[in-house]
Design goal:
Layout lengths: L38 H9 L19 H11 L18 H9 L19 H11 L21 H9 L19 H13 L5 E2 L9 E6 L5 E5 L4 E6 L2 E6 L28 E7 L2 E6 L4 E5 L12 E3 L7 E6 L5 E5 L4 E5 L5 E5 L5 E7 L2 E6 L4 E5 L5 E5 L9 E2 L10 E4 L5 E5 L4 E6 L2 E7 L13 E7 L2 E6 L4 E6 L2
Antiparallel strand pairs: 1-25, 2-3, 3-4, 4-5, 6-7, 7-8, 8-9, 10-11, 11-12, 12-13, 14-15, 15-16, 16-17, 18-22, 19-20, 20-21, 21-22, 23-24, 24-25
Helix pairs in contact: 1-6, 2-3, 4-5
Length: 488
């Protein structure tokens, strides 16, 4: 007899305060006092090449920020990517590539007249909206200001996000003052906070059950498949709404937790014990069912041959399979955590040992011809190039939490890894409850829990990760959250 999974509301989205990175207040500009509230931000933006002065000696902090300036600053922050043809007749010269890029990305749009208005000043709500769109329009908890009705409809979510992340705050009297102008000093402060400090994550899914998200994969339509170790199911998350993609409710133990089991059937009637990771395979999906010691196969949705079940397994017995990854040739990679091995399975079912003798390999990610491994027991991030060619990407091997050079940095039980298109590696440093970035030989913590806020649970034990565009999705089973972290 099936029992409905006991429902419970998930915790509110994370709201980390962003602080301007510590820099010397000496800016080199005669109109920026060393003790000004924006001085360190101006110095940081100048040093990073994101904002310069209006002359060799002046920054003009009180000058209004214009639409053209804003487009140029965000364009530099994005790395000055290639841009299409400028569609605006009133934009030329140095702002043209930035404006063309900002319009193409939907960050800053033109007017109905066909003009862009590069010299028009921006308002506080426009500044919030531009950064929100730049971050991928993440969700945020709504919290009204005293003048909430004065905020334009297009900027309401952006203002909520800017407040929740600490990027922008209201006035002392509780107003946001959305139509007030934003100055170059305000721009420097917001830019330094956004670009130089750890980002805040926002909740992605409206999953309203007591769940433990563990693994994530992207479907062709952009929706996400998320494994749930508590509910023993696989969710499909699309447009902020979640539906069960595979797995049935099962009987509950004395604590009310679903027991799970093993049963091959249609997707709605199949039963899992501990779905851990998910990855594309053979036109369908592979799901590591860890406690059952198998990798389950979810057949393609259009595979309707008679006599076939929607959910089966690969016919291979594994020793605690966890991490999964797929390459461009259709091969599947599996971490056998207890045996310390990583296996390669071809579409024809041929099995090759890619690496052995590892200490509890778990999360996997395929990128640029190499397989990246979160070696949980070894406290390292590894890269496998070819068969048995294993190199350390980061981690001294000693348990701990320390940023710095890749060879000296310390991790503690990392269980997830993701690689961006530019080669930047992100690690879910699970036992430390942090997200770490590995770039240019340096390890940096980019997300951690605010120790001063005892109500916040995330991140507690991040594991599964997926990069989709400019967003890093993170699953945290302990905090029961699936969140999105903007990377740019």
């Amino acid at each position: 007899m099936k029992h409905t999974i006991r429902k419970a509301a998930l915790c509110a989205a994370l709201a980390l305060a962003l602080a301007v990175p510590a820099q010397a207040a000496e800016t080199g500009f005669t109109d920026v006092p060393e003790n000004a509230w924006y001085a360190s931000a101006v110095a940081w933006c100048r040093d990073k090449g994101l904002m310069g002065g209006t002359s060799a000696t002046r920054f003009s902090p009180d000058r209004p920020m214009t639409r053209g300036m804003l487009a140029s600053v965000l364009y530099r922050l994005a790395g000055s990517p290639a841009a299409g043809e400028n569609p605006f007749p009133d934009v030329e010269g140095r702002h043209a590539p930035a404006v063309a890029w900002a319009a193409e990305k939907g960050i800053l749009n033109g007017y109905a007249s066909g003009r862009f208005g590069p010299d028009d000043p921006i308002t506080r709500e426009q500044l919030a909206a531009a950064f929100w769109r730049f971050a991928g329009s993440p969700a945020a908890a709504a919290e009204d200001y005293a003048d909430e009705s004065a905020i334009s409809s297009y900027a309401v979510q952006a203002v909520d996000w800017a407040r929740s992340t600490g990027l922008m705050s209201g006035r002392a009297d509780g107003r946001f003052d959305p139509k007030a102008g934003a100055t170059r000093a305000h721009m420097a402060k917001v830019l330094a906070s956004y670009a130089g400090a750890p980002r805040a994550a926002s909740q992605v899914s409206a999953m309203d059950v007591m769940c433990q998200p563990q693994g994530i994969a992207e479907m062709p339509d952009g929706s996400l498949l998320v494994t749930d170790g508590y509910g023993k199911v696989v969710w499909r998350v699309r447009d902020g709404k979640s539906t069960v993609y595979a797995g049935a409710d099962t009987v509950e133990d004395v604590y009310g937790q679903p027991v799970g089991g093993y049963h091959d059937d249609t997707r709605p009637d199949s039963i899992f014990k501990d779905p851990w990771a998910v990855a594309p395979f053979l036109g369908g999906w592979a799901v590591s069912d860890t406690e059952n010691g198998v990798v389950r196969f979810l057949r393609p949705e259009d595979d309707k041959k008679a006599g076939r079940t929607d959910v089966t397994d690969l016919g291979i017995k594994f020793d605690h399979p966890t991490g999964l990854a797929a390459d461009g040739d259709g091969n599947l990679y599996v971490s056998e955590t207890y045996l310390g091995t990583v296996l390669k399975i071809t579409p024809k079912g041929e099995i090759t040992t890619m690496a052995s003798g590892l200490s509890e390999p778990m999360g996997l990610c395929w990128a640029d011809g190499s397989l990246y491994v979160a070696e949980s027991g070894g406290n390292r991030i590894l890269r496998i190039s070819g068969i048995r060619r294993v190199a350390v990407v980061a981690g001294s091997g000693e348990s701990g939490s320390a940023d710095g050079t890749a060879e000296k940095a310390r991790f503690s039980g990392p269980k997830g890894v993701a690689v961006d298109k530019d080669g930047t590696v992100y690690a879910a440093d699970t036992d430390n409850g942090t997200i770490r970035r590995i770039r240019d030989g340096q390890v940096t913590t980019i997300l951690s829990r605010n120790p001063m806020d005892v109500t916040e649970l995330f991140p507690s034990a991040p594991a599964g990760m997926l990069i989709q565009g400019d967003t890093l999705y993170v699953a945290d089973a302990f905090a029961r959250k699936l969140l999105a972290l903007p990377l740019r």
